[in-house]
Amino acid sequence: MSDESAEGPVEIIQCPVELDYTYTAGQATTRFLRGVGEGKLLGQRCIVCGKIYVASRGACPIHGVPTGPETVEVSDKGTLVSFSIVRIPSENLSVDPPFAAISVLLDGSDSTFMHVLSDCPLEEVRMGMRVEAVWIPKEEWTTSLKNITHFRPLDEPDAPYDSYKEHL
Ligand SMILES: [Zn+2]
Fold this sequence. Notes:
Bound molecules: zinc ion
Oligomer: single chain
Mean pLDDT: 92
Number of domains: 1
Helix content: under 10%
Order of helices and strands: HEEEEEEEE
Number of strands: 8
Distance between the termini: 60 Å
């Protein structure tokens, strides 16, 4: 061969892959997202243990039974129980790194909620910090979690470790 670039092993190829999903929300997620569309975070209670799941998948993961029919509104404030600082950009991220991906235990909920923490220096992000959801203007609400842009710190003392240690 005359082309030198064709010699040697092939070490890398570009292979774009695109997958489109149609995700059916189902009853439980539909209920949750309709609540989000009204500025509410709704959970469902396990009929065996009484735990409240937000956003519920319609069943208690511990007992394997359907959650009860009623919805329970929980607070949009909560406690940061764990976090990860994301420093690597990715096409599927809507937030520019570095940022803190956080797991929040909303007040009144027994399950954690993943989101982004902003309005806070990264070196101050810590377990136990009290945070609240920041909503887009009400006139822009849809039935999407995009109604909440991020969480931000609350001017409150950190929650004691014992109050969230079961949710790490
Ligand atoms: Zn249960």
